[in-house]
Amino acid sequence: MLDIIASVDIGATKITASLCNRDGIIIRIYQRTRLTGDEGSIPDQVKELVDTCFVKARLEKDKLIAVGISTAGPFQRMDGKLHLVSPNICGGMTPERGVLPNSWRSVPIEKELSKHFKNLVIQNDAVSGVMAERTFGAGKGYENLLYVTWSTGIGTGAFVDGKLIRGKNGNAPHGGHVFLGDTGPVCGCGNTCDLEAVASGTAIALQYGGGATTAEVFEAYSRGDAKAKKVIQEAATYFARGLASINSVLDTKMIVIGGSVFLNNRDLLLPLVKEEFYRSFPALSRDVLFATSELGEYLGDIAAISLVIPEDWIKEWRTTKPWERAPDTIYLDG
Amino acid sequence: MLDIIASVDIGATKITASLCNRDGIIIRIYQRTRLTGDEGSIPDQVKELVDTCFVKARLEKDKLIAVGISTAGPFQRMDGKLHLVSPNICGGMTPERGVLPNSWRSVPIEKELSKHFKNLVIQNDAVSGVMAERTFGAGKGYENLLYVTWSTGIGTGAFVDGKLIRGKNGNAPHGGHVFLGDTGPVCGCGNTCDLEAVASGTAIALQYGGGATTAEVFEAYSRGDAKAKKVIQEAATYFARGLASINSVLDTKMIVIGGSVFLNNRDLLLPLVKEEFYRSFPALSRDVLFATSELGEYLGDIAAISLVIPEDWIKEWRTTKPWERAPDTIYLDG
Q: Within this chain, do residues A95 and A142 fall inside the same structural domain, yes or no?
């Protein structure tokens, strides 16, 4: 029997859990994130999902050697353990918005999961994303690498001088929260006019208004809708300025962009982003390269896997790309 | 005869050069920066100033073991060597401003000085500033440390996870160029409304107008001048937001602030900065500490010294603080 690793990707809307061995991905299950109950709700759901993977795959848990958790952030360290303090998960952080069905102020993710799993590694999803891109994707070989996910929110992860940067609470680089203006939309985090507030998928839908989804705004753009064009061009301009700000701090070489907003609209967005980015301070911007995430819909899984994958599996996985022949996802009811 | 190290601090207006041995600072000379002649003008001036230190101190150059250069940035790497591409030094970068008496597009600082000096270390002045603060100043013991100089311009240097961050061209973290708005003053770098354009000493003087110097704007504030109050409060607000943006990228623990604008007006500025900083996303801002640079007018020298000081001098220097009993500066004509 081969060693098994488990990977879990926690988002505000869904959690996916997978098991892998050195031959590839064995099973992948999907469930909506449980945002009700007490602060232990999400850690309990993660434990259940990993257990369910073992049951459905008819495997024994004694072969589990490590668990990688990639999760929406940010974190706060309390009593030495990482707690989730994400305004999109913890209703107690944003009671004035009144959209989350809980009053959690933090989720004790590390404390609860470390009781249950050994060799547990927990990272912000964009930080694990940059691990994935550097290990298996478009960032291979770059010592100075920024990964950006442009999705419902905007997250970033980075290697600087060949090292993954973490910061005091593991929140570096939380680039979605750089300020880009004085007045304008308010972010879920409370900041006015930060990158996420003006350029995320959520921001695009809100700026367009009328209850349109982000995808519908892009459809309207392709039909020649002037308002959609304005909203999307503004978002792309802000996104580029946000990247320029982050690059001025990190002096990066390669920026890999992923996330559903970008990947679904790459041919439209990439030229807009590059044009505005290279307008910023040339001495800092001119040597920077752009690439598109190559890991597609499995980025979240590969991200969590990258946190704990044994060194001696990597070379083979780079060739076989097991995420391209992953088994069908099993959708569980909540 | 004791080993000697040389330190040079290159700014857009002046260059200081010093010699030290393990007992302390032996000599310090000061000269206005030569911004005329060809691209080799500043490297030549640096060589001359170090030579002049040896002549005036009546010391032999064969005891020189290393040279630390702290300089205004940013850098660009050409043929593997660092070149200065500073818009405040290279007139060829900003011909439209027409204020610099040269047409240099870059200064071959490393190429020229490495012919002349062995064990040469060149760093951006705020990067060497954070080295100085972590070795001898208010940043001792911090693994996640940001140093900010709030002066004519705004520069930053940082340790993340215990490592000095450099980036691909040694420009990390060039935090003065994070964007803070869409419209407003234009920075020397070409960015509109970046941190340096809206909060630096230069920005404060320009916003007040009428030919007032930065110091005169602060004097006007202390006399109750309403316009000065507005200008300075806006600059402090922008400065705090810039720090919040940089902190969101680096997840730092301690921010040490130095530079003439801050040090001359600390009691006024620090409360304004802290109030605005802690308003930003609490999960990222709440654990951050602030301190004032303790190295005073010698920061630039200590910064350059910190780049090359032998490990076994440090403990003694932390106790004896030789910069507090440095010899009188010798002012040389240009």
A: no
